[in-house]
Amino acid sequence: MTQSIRAARGSQLTTRGWQQEGALRMLMNNLDPEVAERPDDLVVYGGTGKAARDWPSYHALVRTLTDLREDETMLVQSGRPVGVMRTHEWAPRVLLANSNLVGDWATWPEFRRLEQLGLTMYGQMTAGSWIYIGTQGILQGTYETFSAVAAKRFDGTLAGTLTLTAGCGGMGGAQPLAVTMNGGVCLIVDVDRSRLDRRVRDRYLDEVADSLDDAIARVRAAKRDRRALSVGVVGNAAEVFPELLNRGVEIDIVTDQTSAHDPLAYLPVGVELAEARDYAAAKPVEFTDRARASMAKHVEAMVGFLDAGAEVFDYGNSIRGEAQLGGYQRAFDFPGFVPAYIRPLFCEGRGPFRWAALSGDPADIAATDRAILDLFPENESLARWIKLAGERVAFQGLPARICWLGQGERDRAGVRFNDMVASGELSAPVVIGRDHLDTGSVASPYRETEGMADGSDAIADWPLLNALVNTASGASWVSIHHGGGVGIGRSIHAGQVCVADGTALAGQKIERVLTNDPAMGVIRHVDAGYESAREVADRTGVRVPMTEG
Ligand code: NAD
Q: Within its chain, how far is the Cα of 126 from the centroid?
C-alpha cells in the first residue's frame, strides 16, 4: 500500500496525552517522505531499517497510540504492537524490542527467513525506535568525527585536504557537509545518481560531476585553493576507489558509508542498479558472494591509500568484516572510527543528544538553540556547531536539532526545554532522545565497543541495563534492538526518548533519565578501566560501587 504520511503539527492533541502524542508524531515523522529513504516500504534508513513491520502493523500502532491511556504501556515486537498492559504514569508509554534473535540463530539467512515469514523486521537504530530525524542526526556525529581527524592529523582544520568516501544515502549523505564544515574538500561516490541529487537539494552536497575526470579536476582545484567543496560522482566504489589509487590522486582521508553491513544492499561490480533488488531477492547467496568480492576490492584500495600515508577509517558499516569474508586478508589494517576518534568523548558520557519540535515550528528549534548557547557558553565547538547547523541544515520533517552533550549537561538541557514548554516560550512540547550509537547503550565489537581497554567488546549486558534503567527512570519510550548499523549478529543496543510536555512530572522524569542514561556510559568506561571516565564519575557524582570503600 502506498500513502504519504506526515505527523500532526501544533499544540492540539490527537491522542489522550503528550507522552503518547510524542510517540505517534515521531513514528509518523520517521515515515514522512522528507525523512524516510523508502517510505512506501516503511524503510526509514540504513538499507532496510523500518519503522513498522508492515502496513497492518503500522495502522495498528497508530490506532493503539491514539487510544492509549496515561497508565498503559504498548508493547512492540519488531514493528508490530503485540500488547497493551496496565502500568503507571512513570512507566514508558511504549516498550519496543526489534530484530532480536538468540545468539546461535543470529545470522542474516535466519533473520531473512523469519522476516519473509512476517515474524520480524530490521529496526536499525532509530528507525524502529522512532527517533530518526533525517540526515542531520548523523551530521553532528560525522562533524565531530571529521573534527577529530583534523585535530589528530591536520592541525585542527581540513582546509587543503581531500577526503574520499562512498555512500550518499540516509546516513552517508552527511559526510560531504561534515567535511566542508571542517573546511575540507570531499569526493563522494554513489552508484545511485538520485541519492547524490537529493543531497544537493538538501544542501548537504555542493555539486555532482559529469564524469570521474571532471570530479578529479574539480576537487584538485579546490584542494589547491584551500576552498571547502564537496563533489559527488556516480560510480561503483569497488571500481572508482582502485581507479583513483592507480591514478595517484592526492587523497588525504579515506572512509566509506555504503550499506556494507547488509551485503544485499551493497551493489556488486557488474550489476545494474535497476536489477539489483530483484537479483538480490531471487539469488541472495550468489548476490552476497558477489557483493563481498566487490567489497574486498573496495577495501583493498582503502588499504592501498593507507599504505600511501592517508588517514583511513571504517565508518561503522562493517565493510572490513564483509571484505574479510570476501577473501581479503588485510581488511582490519585500518581502525574503526570509534577507537580512533570517539572513545575519549564516550568516557565523558558525551554523545548524540537530539530533540524535535512537535509544533513543527522552526522558531521552537531556534529558541532551543539559543538556550543551548546560553547553558554552555564555555563550549566553543558546540557554539560553532549550533551556529553552522542553524545556517546550513535544512530540516527534514519535524524541525529538530542535535548536539553532543555529556554527563551533567544533558539533564540541564532537558530540564530547561521542559521549562520552556511550561512557560510558553516553546509553542508545543518537544521530544528529547538520541541515537543508539551512544556512550553506554550499545555493544558492538566492530564499532562502538571495538578494542575496549579490558577486552569486553562483545559483552552485551550494558545495553540491556541501559534500557532497564531508562525504563525505571521514566522515559516515554524505550527500545532494545539487535543488528543496527553493523548487521545481524554484530550488535545489541538500546534507545530512549522523553517527551518534555512542560508538566512537573515530565521535568522530574527528564532530570532522572538524562542523568542516568549518559551515566551508563560513564560507568561502562570506568568498568573497562578508562581513567578519564573515572574522573568524570568523581566530578559528576556518578556512583561506581567497585571503586568505593
Ligand atoms: P543507505 O542505504 O541509505 O545508503 C547507502 C548508499 O550506498 C546508497 O545511496 C547506495 O546507492 C550506495 N551504494 C551501495 N553500494 C554501493 C557501491 N558498491 N558503490 C557506491 N555506492 C554504493 O544507508 P545509510 O543509512 O546511508 O547507511 C550507510 C551505512 O552506514 C550502513 O551500513 C549503516 O549501517 C552505516 N551506519 C553508520 C553509522 C555511523 O555511525 N558511522 C551510523 C549509521 C549507519
A: 7
One fold for 1-132+337-540 and 136-335: no
Which tens digits make up the pLDDT trace of 67-119?
Answer: 999 999 999 999 999 999 999 999 999 999 999 999 999 999 999 999 999 99
Q: Which residue among the candidates 168, 347, 403, 498 is catalytic per the annotation?
A: 403
Which CATH superfamily, name and number, covers 1-132+337-540? Urocanase superfamily (3.40.1770.10)
387 grid coordinates: 551556529
The DSSP element (H or E) to which 195 belongs, if any, is: helix 193-201
Q: Which of 90-94, 154-158, 378-382, 499-503 has the lowest mean pLDDT?
A: 378-382
Least Cα distance to 525 among 513, 514, 540, 510 occurs for 540
The answer to whether 127 touches 49, Cβ cutoff 8 Å, is yes
136-335 homologous superfamily: Urocanase like domains (3.40.50.10730)
Tell me: the pLDDT tens digits for 132-159?
A: 998 887 888 899 899 889 988 999 899 9
Domain ranges of the chain: 1-132+337-540, 136-335
Instruction: For residue range 398-425, list pLDDT tens digits in order.
Output: 999 999 999 999 999 999 999 999 999 9
Pocket lined around ligand 1, Cβ cut-off 6 Å: 37, 45-47, 138, 141, 166-172, 189-192, 195, 236-238, 257-261, 265-267, 315-317, 437, 485
Specify binding-site residues.
Answer: 46-47, 124, 170-172, 190, 195, 236-237, 257-261, 266-267, 315, 485
